[in-house]
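Weekly modeling sync, notes
Attendees: S.R. (lead), two postdocs, one rotation student

Agenda item 3: backlog of single-chain predictions. S.R. asked that every request posted to the team notebook include the full sequence so nobody has to chase files. The rotation student volunteered to paste the first one in as an example of the format we agreed on. Action items at the bottom.

Example entry:
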Amino acid sequence: MSSSSSLDTAEMQFEAYLFDPRPKYPLLIPAKRYWHPSLCSNDPEALTLICIHPAGQYKELWEPTLRHMFSLMSSGLTTDIKVREAWAIDAPNHGDSAIANEYLFTGYPSSCYWEDYTRSLHVFLAGLGTGVDIDFRKRNLVGIGVSAGCVPLVLIDTYIPTVEFSSLILAEPMILSPLQAGNLAFDMSSGAARRQYKWKSRVEALRHMRANRRLRTWAPEVQVSYVENALRDLPTALYPEEREGVTLKCPREYEAAGYREFQGIVRAYDYLRFVCLLLPVHFIFGAQPDLIPESFHADMLRVAAEGRYASMYRVQGSGHMIIQQQPAGLAAAVLRCLQNNISRSLIIPRDESRL
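Predicted structure, as returned to the notebook:
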């Protein structure tokens, strides 16, 4: 099942899909394919970007960043980067996937974000289902993740059949040692559990975002995207008695539970060095460390990656919420990583990129 539409900025187009891996995997997987008509390349080496969203977010969060990427590419500044298309999928209890699977999740808020997302990503890319007639194993895949969305990209290599990426781009990765993860998990989980979960309307929700000290730092285009794509009308299976207004597609209980399940964050930390031996891995950090201290970034590069990263860039004007605060800056940094892949043949970190 698919539908298509057009986005006005930089002529980006999208098509929506619903991937059904049952009975191999019980959860439906909504996905969107994005492309630019004048940039889409059928070159077999052209890139297919696989975009993974953070915990508590939704696949359409990538749209502002992708629009900026396609706009930069169409300006002629990156003529040697060939992109066929980009794909974004929802984590199983996030975004449209939370709606498609809500009756399976009702009563089970402790569903593990990283494990279910990794499994969903794997069955989707391995073609273990119906609804998307593409053999991704024949594509030149580049994985791009943000925050906890980096975890599935690191751990997917542990699943069979193997899905091969040509490189990974990890933005503000939530990949931490056991001690680091334990220190952050409680604060993140308790904060998510207290999050406002309903509003009278999307207009009120947008007004709330623009008045909130933390959320008003988000780019205006991301704020609009959030109220359009992260919210749904009431009632829902989780809130059957709430008859009016809008609420989160990903219930706050599910987001909070995902932060408590930090085993995947630690597994990715332990496995990262092996991934860095197999393919180029690029890191992008916000220039203003907030949620994740700069010392954690340094540890990730020097200990977890063992210094074998391909490149590292910082985006000015952003902290951990890099995709929300600086979609244009993130887009430029991603293109620099892709350009780096073209100009490099060895995975040797540059001295000037180190923390």
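Discussion: group reviewed the output briefly. The chain has one domain: 2-194+262-353.
Action items: rotation student to repeat for the remaining queue; S.R. to check formatting next week.
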